[in-house]
Write a structure and sequence with these properties.
Blueprint: H1 7-24, H2 28-34, H3 39-47, H4 66-79, H5 81-100, H6 103-114, E1 120-123, E2 139-143, E3 146-157, E4 164-170, E5 180-186, E6 192-197, E7 208-219, H7 231-267, E8 269-270, E9 273-274, H8 279-308, H9 314-341, H10 352-362, H11 369-382, H12 396-399, E10 401-402, E11 410-411
Parallel strand pairs: 1-4
Antiparallel strand pairs: 2-3, 3-7, 4-5, 6-7, 8-9, 10-11
């Protein structure tokens, strides 16, 4: 398929690049060390209309699509992958409403997201339920015109900063296919609390917290969708849409680390010459660049596929491929960048160490890369019927074709 970058998408990416240069990169170390959210950069993102990227036009957004979201996220993550997360998680938290919400829900909340007035978080993972979304234990029990939510969520990114939370709960414990539902819970609702703020190895500028629900009463109109039991479907659809965004964070992080490694290799001298003149370093840089570029275009392909055919079954496979490959690449590139920096790469005084710390979580959240490989292989096995014309049991020598110059091709398989 053709991957077409709209003029709007490139304009949004250019704005993101400018904000990254002015507000994100210069303050990345400061907010990382302080473990504080970069509100200045978030305001600049809102004023530039970048939160409108993923919101449909009819609700105050640009409706620019997943490919544009990937481009914006990549530019921000190139400067600070932590802030790239802080931006992209708003799309993750909004997708349940965008993909499955009622018209009333979309009209009420999405314009506030698009303007940057209110931030969003996604509450799926729990202490004993991460990749296994069916294993949730937080409950939502119907009570008259309301639902009452009880339980704890782990690793809520943007928690505390966010004003709106997409929360996945068990509404029918007896059902397998209709067990889970999703709800909109607003900050300040009685019984809803932000508890433990995690002390993280990386992405330290964006808060990751425990969210606790003690008899949290929400009206039934906050149930995402027309009826209960659609939560698992909403979660899986959301993750398919969001994974190219995580992959774009990884591409941005890989490119940011590669850029620093190239500059350092050209300036650092050993044995009377820049280390970039040594073949071993050249090989490392070449491999880093190839892997980053290959990951970038797989991400664009996955994002463009979602934009072109939102319901296509292959989107899940491509999104998993993009997320898995790009995040593995980010970890590899960051590791080799530290190696190129040598002793300087191990010191927190220099920016490359942060790229290394930030890269690891990319392989873990929004579906570990082990789970992504399971998703990919499942799709491959299901598609095996399309390969029925191949016969793996025919000896290789009987399948060969050959022809002497001027003669017809002979097929030994006839």
């Amino acid at each position: 398929m053709n991957i077409v970058f709209s003029e709007q998408a490139e304009e949004l990416a250019a704005k993101a690049r400018q904000i990254a240069d002015e507000y994100v990169r210069p303050q990345a170390a400061k907010y990382d060390k302080a473990q504080e959210y970069n509100h200045d950069a978030a305001r600049a993102v809102a004023e530039a209309g970048l939160f409108r990227t993923f919101v449909p036009k009819e609700y105050g957004g640009h409706g620019a699509g997943v490919l544009a979201l990937a481009r914006v996220t990549e530019e921000l993550a190139k400067a600070d992958s932590g802030f790239g997360v802080a931006f992209a998680v708003n799309a993750l938290g909004s997708f349940p409403m965008i993909l499955g919400g009622t018209e009333e829900q979309k009209k009420e909340w999405l314009p506030q997201v698009a303007s940057g007035e209110r931030m969003v978080a996604f509450c799926l993972s729990e202490k004993y339920a991460g990749s296994d979304a069916q294993g949730l234990s937080v409950t939502a029990v119907a009570d008259g015109d309301d639902y009452i939510i009880n339980g704890e969520k782990k690793w809520t990114t943007n928690g505390g900063v966010a004003d709106i939370y997409s929360v996945f709960c068990v509404t029918d414990p007896t059902s397998k296919s209709r067990r889970i539902s999703a709800f909109i819970v607003e900050k300040g609702t009685p019984g809803f609390e932000i508890k433990k703020i995690e002390d993280k190895m990386g992405i330290r500028c964006v808060p990751v917290v425990e969210t606790h629900f003690h008899n949290v009463r929400v009206p039934k109109r906050n149930l995402i969708g027309e009826r209960a039991g659609l939560g698992f479907k909403h979660a899986m659809s959301t993750l398919d849409y969001a994974r190219p965004g995580v992959a774009a964070q990884a591409v941005g992080a890989a490119q940011g680390a590669l850029d620093l490694a190239i500059v350092y290799a050209n300036r650092r001298k050993q044995f009377g010459a820049p280390i970039s003149s040594h073949q071993m370093v050249q090989k490392m840089l070449a491999d880093m660049a190839m892997q980053t570029e290959a990951s970038r275009w797989l991400v664009y392909r996955a994002a463009a596929g979602i934009d072109a055919a939102p319901g296509d079954a292959s989107n899940s496979k491509l999104a998993a491929m993009a997320k898995c490959m790009a995040t593995d690449t980010a970890m590899h590139v960051a590791t080799d960048a530290v190696q190129i920096f040598g002793g300087y790469g191990f010191m927190e005084d220099y920016p490359i160490a942060k790229f290394f710390r930030d890269a690891k979580i990319l392989q873990i959240y929004e579906g570990t890369n082990q789970v992504q490989r399971m998703v990919i292989s499942r799709h491959l096995i299901r598609a095996a019927a399309n390969l029925d014309h191949l016969d793996p049991y025919i000896p290789v020598e009987t399948q060969l074709t050959y022809a002497e110059p001027g003669q017809a091709v002979v097929n030994h398989n006839t």
